[in-house]
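Many introductory courses stop at the sequence. We go one step further.
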Amino acid sequence: MAEKRRTFHPEFREGAVRTATETGKTIAEVAEDLGNNETTLASRVPAPVGQEPPPPRSRPQDALHETRGLTL
C-alpha cells in the first residue's frame, strides 16, 4: 500500500523559505531540521538577486557528459 503524501500549509512553506534565506543555514540543514526534503525546499527558495538559476537540462545524457567532462 502506498504511503499518503504529507501536505504543508502555505504558512509552513513560507516560514521554511524565510528560514533558509534569512539565517546562515544551508537549504539542506533547514530541510533536515524541518523533516522536509532538500530538493522540495530548494525548489521554493528563490535564486539570489543578480544570479539566474541554472537552465534545465534537456536530456539526461547531458548530465552524464557534464560530469565526465565530455562534449557532444
